[in-house]
Amino acid sequence: MKHNFVSLLAAAVLSVGFVAPAAAAVTPEKLDGVKLITAEQARDLQAKGAPMVDTRVAAEYAEKTVKGAVSVPYKEKSAKDAGFDPKADSFDLGKLPGEKAAPVVMFCNAGECWKSYKAAVVARDAGYKQIY
Question: What is the domain-level CATH number for residue 120?
Answer without folding.
Answer: 3.40.250
